Amino acid sequence: MKKVIVILFACFSLVSYAQQDPLYSQYQFNQLMINPAYAGIYNRLSVGAISRFQWAGIDGSPRTNTLTAQSSLAEGKIGLGVLILNDRFGVSNNYELQFASSYNIKFNSTTKLAMGIQGGFVQFGYDFSKVNFDFFDDPELINGHDNVIKPNFGAGIMLLNPNFFIGASVPRILNVSVTDGSIVSERYKRHYYLTAGITAEIQKTPVKATTLIRSMAGETYSFDITISALLEDVMWAGVSVRDLKHFGILGIFELGETLKLGYSFELPTNNLIHGNYGTHEVSINYNIRYGYGRQEPIFF
């Protein structure tokens, strides 16, 4: 009985379903979470935090907390950034630390090309004591913990100006597999990201549309589309859709030139709509502008 439970659980949780990257609704306001080329892309010091509570009300649903900090150096030619992340889902509880660096090439006063790399460590942790069995005869599983720390690195590129951007990235290039005796557990599969966005003015109101396409090692993909408008130069208000199944709204409040507060809400239209209270995401971002270079507005 002991071996059957362990093997079935390992096959279901670790082999069939490799860990996926966290989802974000507000990625377009801080793309360091998915692309190291975004590090220091603006002439300012920026510190941000974002928390996502997915499928609220369902036990073991995903919870993601992310902290980022970034800055530009050498009059905007070099960017540095750091990302700290905790992602929980079911019995998994993962931590990540990444350091990013970018190099910016300016084509003119408004358009730049950024190339970035990052590197760090990811801890994949599993707490099997959170699993409830009707019949339980294995004391090892009661306090059973499985933790694996693996290095990883990523790369990205981004072309940006106040009117548009396009970016491509692979934040974690290395697949992660662990051999547990005779079982090979695939803990992580490489993800590919393609992002793009445009801004325009409609009756003197800035409007932007952004999209994100995400693929996991060529097997699955998803896409997001978000349209938002800057109302009275105070709040970005928008709507979003993911895979034509999840619909959401968002609001990003700009409190002066330094502080931004954000909230977004998503609700699925499939069977997941029953038994949960939607997905909630809150964010805060603090910016300090530097004295050198052009102080362009942060549209992306």
Topology overview:
Layout: H1 2-15, E1 44-53, E2 63-73, E3 78-89, E4 92-106, E5 112-127, H2 139-142, E6 145-161, E7 164-170, E8 176-180, E9 183-188, E10 191-202, E11 205-216, E12 220-231, E13 235-242, E14 246-255, E15 259-268, E16 279-289
Description:
The protein has helices at residues 2-15, 139-142; strands spanning 44-53, 63-73, 78-89, 92-106, 112-127, 145-161, 164-170, 176-180, 183-188, 191-202, 205-216, 220-231, 235-242, 246-255, 259-268, 279-289. With 300 residues, the chain is mostly beta strands. The chain has a single domain (2-289), classed as monomeric porin ompg (Porin), CATH 2.40.160.40. The protein has a 14-stranded antiparallel beta barrel with strand order 1-2-3-4-5-6-7-10-11-12-13-14-15-16. Strands 8-9 form a two-stranded antiparallel ribbon.
